[in-house]
């Protein structure tokens, strides 16, 4: 999957969970949950949404690695192959 397509999928999944998020204002290397004010249930729903759309398993043990948008993109790119 191309980088732009992956980014688009991640952002569309995010706005499904948090429609008020202004995706253009996101900073790629700042913790995402802080920027969009997601609680733990919203974060879990976001990761589940990514799993469903991208068919990528995201084990709970990896959640702590997924802090920034850059972290997410790199992780998903590596997992999606």
How do the strands and helices of this protein lay out in sequence?
Elements: H1 3-17, H2 32-36, H3 40-54, H4 69-80
Helix pairs in contact: 1-3, 1-4
What does this structure look like?
58% of the residues lie in helices and 0% in strands. It has a single domain (3-80), classed as Orthogonal Bundle (Non-ribosomal Peptide Synthetase Peptidyl Carrier Protein, Chain A), CATH 1.10.1200. With 81 residues, the chain is mainly α.
Distance between the termini: 8 Å
Number of discrete domains:
1
Q: What is Rg? A: 11 Å
Q: How many E-type strands? A: 0
- The topology string of helices and strands comes to HHHH
Strand content: under 5%
Low-pLDDT parts are none
Mean pLDDT: 94
The assigned structural class equals: mainly alpha
Net shape: globular
Tally of individual helices: 4
Helix share of residues? 55-70%
- Specify the CATH architecture: Orthogonal Bundle
Short overview:
With 81 residues, the protein is mostly helical. It contains 4 helices and no strands.
List keywords for this structure.
single chain; 81 residues; mainly alpha; Non-ribosomal Peptide Synthetase Peptidyl Carrier Protein, Chain A; 4 helices; 0% strand
């Amino acid at each position: 999957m191309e980088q732009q397509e992956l980014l688009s999928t991640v952002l569309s999944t995010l706005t499904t969970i948090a429609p008020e998020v202004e995706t253009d204002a996101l900073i790629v290397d700042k913790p995402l949950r802080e920027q969009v004010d997601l609680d733990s249930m919203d974060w879990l729903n976001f990761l589940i949404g990514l799993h469903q759309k991208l068919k990528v398993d995201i084990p709970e043990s990896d959640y702590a690695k997924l802090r920034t948008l850059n972290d997410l993109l790199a992780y998903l790119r590596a997992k999606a192959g």
